[in-house]
Amino acid sequence: MLIRRKDGEWGVIYSVLCKSTLYVHPDEHTSEPLLSINLQSEASSLPSSAPGSGHNSLTHKLNFSTSPGGSRPSSPDSTMTGSPRDGVSGPQMSIRLVDDSLFGVENCFCIEAQSSRYSDRLFDADSMPESRHLTKYYFVVESVKERHHWIEELRAAMLTSQSLRHVTSLELGVNALHVDRNSSAAAQLLPSGKGASSNMYYCNIHFDNELQARTFSKRDNEGVVEWMAQFHFDDIRHSFFDMSIVIWRMGTSAKEKDVEIGRITMPFHTLAQTTLNKENVGAGGNWYQLESGIGKVRIELRYTVERICPLPTYNSLFVFLLNTLNADTNMVNLIYDALNGDSTAQAKSEFAGSLVRFFLGIGQITKFLRTLTRCEIFATDQPTIIFRGNTMATKAMDQFMKICCEDYLHETMDEVAYDMFSCTQSCEIDPTQMDKGEDLMKNWRRLKSFIDRVTKSVFESSATVPRDLVVIFEGIRVAMADKFGDADQNKGLTAISGFIFLRLFSAALQGPHLHPFLLVPDIPEERSRRLFTLVSKTVQTLANLRLFSQKEEHLMNMMNNSFEEDHVLDKMRKFLTEVSTVYYGPKTASDIDKTMALYDAPIDIAAIVPMLKHSSVFVTFPPNHGPTISSTVHPAASAGVGVRVDIERELAFINHHLQKKRPYLAKKAESNAVLKPLITKLFAIIDDVQKNEQTVIDNAQRQGFQVSTGEAADE
After folding, report:
1. d(CA 432, CA 454)
2. Burial of 269 per CB tally in 10 Å (0-12, 13-18, 19+)
3. Burial of 383 per CB tally in 10 Å (0-12, 13-18, 19+)
4. Most buried of 306, 442, 465, 550 (most Cβ within 10 A)?
5. In the chain, which residues fall in CATH 1.10.506.10?
6. For 611-618, what is the mean pLDDT?
7. Residue 612, Cβ neighbours under 10 Å: how many?
8. For the chain, what is the total number of helices (H) and then of strands (E)?
9. Segment holding 95, helix H or strand E
10. pLDDT at 13
């Protein structure tokens, strides 16, 4: 763990969480705590010694961190030894994640708490606008799972089982800067002459005056700077007044300091009042003029305030969602088509993502996605168009793959993607697009070498595909055989390639710098971008289990013979079969059949409902681990990666979505006699949840808490 100090040194400390207090020690041998943070509103006296092992405490070593841009001071011992011991307590308390760009490290979180006057001496506990005694403590741990463990333990010490939460979040995209060199401010803030073409710019994001995140530095390209930076801020402190996006020009020499050329300031209360502009959001956001007048910045954002009640509030909705998976095939399609209704593409993705995280959190994600995909297969008559539309099944699969495949994608593609990004030589093989003097065969050999590396890396990765995804792919392959027969196995394999290639590998190669792929640090240069396009197109063609046709003559002539000689299509079929075949270990065929049947068996709702007592869980994605797994597999892939799921937050979002769809569902019930009883029951569930929510809100207001309405805004 990492904690940020004013002196900027790195050190090692020891922490213990006991009941409602976090104790921090200089080392594991010192009994007296250096710092104690009381996580409840009632202040408690500081004990004379740290709690021992008999307290069922959570312990871990912590590291100190430098502050952004901080200087390197003296040894930490000079500040720690003999320093006043500090007790931190108070009702104003929050725990939040911290963007990786702030410190350049991963897995950081922050505790904000009221403190005594001694905090400012020892730690980099910046004063808040509303109180000089409200301080921040930054911690970093070694893994996502460990961070989740700490946050959940700390929040459990803060909150009671009946707590009402408000979670404010912001998804921010800082996409581009357009510099107006003819503006009056340009003469003062921008260099002229030779230095004008080499300007580097970066952007800092502040809440009030607190730095939250930053972009990479990018070069000015004829007055345009493209960052395409994506940030997600969750659990934003409600006392923040505004957000500032500050643009800096780097000094052109070691002696010249960086210069702020302008900023945009947005009060948070105005973000809550903005309305969705579909055209601008789809085009990458809106343009905002810098206050200095020197240019404008293209920004897209989504600001939400969520009101989240305790899990028992949503008990009836919880049971309803589980029951949908026990319905017959036609009913499942009707249910989820109706729930999605006439939503926008963004709303469909968000609803699908919330359902995916909910079922992931309760351990039923494979059942949910196998059910959805099987239902879509049996509702489609043409195998060539399966999973090609924006249905609930495709949206849900997209969302799940974004969650579970991030580390798998990077383990498979990072090395070759970076080499493609760094390539400055031409790989163009279309004679109509080649520059004068280029050698076609040299270009072809360079392109072929990258294609071979990509396909080799993919084909060797089958053992590390997340096991849950393999279970779902196996369900798709079996369902395709049940629907269309197993005479042509290519039908089932191309249905699978429509996910793992069309929506993962090919998409990542087409936009390697885009979120959520982020295979490369920046937008590729022109030749590199063309290389990514050619490789992506080739890989997707192979994933469709075909070679190039006459329509793509320049590709057909160069590639088809080579791919036939290398038996690439046979290797592709083998890979798609492997990623859709669950490895069960040394079991008999009868045991395997029994295990497979469990994936599609009806859900025992009575056994799952007790999970409502767990508000948040950490879900891991172990790989399939076939018998021939490579010894060079990265340890993270072998162990399985994971994600935190806040079950009550997902249920709150699903409930909010259903409330908004109520008029549409009412019309659907009138026109569909089969759905009418189900929708009538759903309306009763919505009413029950609303009644429970109002009870929680009334209780909170009687205790003096200010209750906000959930809202969302896009710009």
Report:
1. 26
2. exposed
3. middle
4. 465
5. 312-395+602-623+630-697, 405-578
6. 62
7. 19
8. 25, 21
9. strand 94-98
10. 55
Q: Which pLDDT band holds residue 69 (cuts at 50, 70, 90)?
A: very low
**Domain 166-308 carries which CATH code?**
2.60.40.150
* Mean pLDDT of the region 85-101: 60
Report yes or no: 508 and 409 within 8 Å, Cβ to Cβ: yes
Q: How is domain 405-578 classified at the CATH fold level? A: GTPase Activation - p120GAP; domain 1 (1.10.506)
Tokens of 220: 């000015």
pLDDT for residue 127 is more than 60: no
Tell me what pLDDT residue 272 has. Answer: 65
242-297: pLDDT as tens digits: 999 999 998 877 788 898 999 999 998 888 654 333 333 334 578 899 988 888 99
CATH number (1.10.506.10, 1.20.1260.10, 2.40.50.140, 3.40.640.10) of 312-395+602-623+630-697 reads 1.10.506.10
Cis peptide before 191 (omega within 30 of 0): no
- Candidates 2.30.29.30, 3.30.365.10, 3.30.70.120, 1.10.4160.10; correct CATH number of 2-73+83-163? 2.30.29.30
Q: Which of 525, 506, 526 is nearest to 517 (CA)?
A: 506
Written as six digits, the tokens of 173 are: 């995209």
Q: Any bridge partners for residue 218, and if so which?
A: 201
Q: Which amino acid is at 555?
A: L
Tokens describing residue 20: 């409602």
Q: How many CB atoms lie within 10 A of CB 110?
A: 18
